[in-house]
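Example record

The entry below shows one chain as it appears in the dataset: sequence first, then structure tokens.
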Amino acid sequence: MQPTRGLTRGAPRATVYQMAYFPPEQYEAAWTQGLLNATSHRDHGDYRRETQQTMQAMAERAAAPIQIVRLDVPDLLAYAQRTGTDPARRPTRLAYAGWLHKTGHTGDLWPPERNSPCWCGSAAKYKKCCGNPAFLAIEPPDPASLVLRIELNGVTPPVWRRVAIPSNTTLDLVHRMIQDAMGWSDEHMYVFETDEHTIIDPRSDSGEAPADGERLVSIATEAGATFTYVYDFGDEWTHTVTVEEIRPGGPHNTFTVLDGGGACPPEDIGGAAAYQHLLAAFADSSRPDHDDAVELLGEDFDPTRHHGATAG
């Protein structure tokens, strides 16, 4: 899903949300053309179930209307050729959906009336198709596991973790996983940022997209993709997150800490620059602030140590 105008920290929420959607025959064509990858459901029923769930979650948190933008593969390929972009990349599909909206190719508003045709394009009534509680009660399988490298910016020795997270995990849960992997104590607010969007802690009243209404796959769809995770708006602990690998999903597709290095800094010390100052004082017994640093960090503190791989 994307808004008609970009989201930035402190900006009001967009007035219309667009849900880019491949109808059944176009979804199959997208797979044939190699436009989708392991983060996408192979079964169209799972795909539209997830689409319905995403729109419902967003509707619960935003007063803005949602518009279904139906994607056409030949037209998408033509758009990508005109713009010199890769049709297999999610940003291209989002830009194409935005172009359709701007050029007047508007879709239907969601949700339809209960007795109206379903938004997905079937001939069935909405209440008997995607709006059917029995249809939504089926939990679609998570199609992929994303291997992420999380690196805390501005600190030496490097503090990093390598984790595997199911691709459809909501970003509020991804936040908790990052907290656990890094060693933070989850006492402050957070935000996820990409070049296109800002997705924020649901406790925020900023009006930006809430993290419990967006999934990891919405910001990490391909190997090499990066996004930023900021924890604590006072200390501004900024993490660069890189998608290193996309693995197939399966019964063992769970959150796992695979590797890492560096100890997590203490919280509420002023951020990365203050941490570097603290480490310098800790290492130099001749400094007047050495004892304070030892008291804060602990005599046995090792900035190169991390708490190892876990699974959950």
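Notes for this example: The first strand starts at residue 2 and ends at 3. The chain has two domains: 2-136, 144-297.
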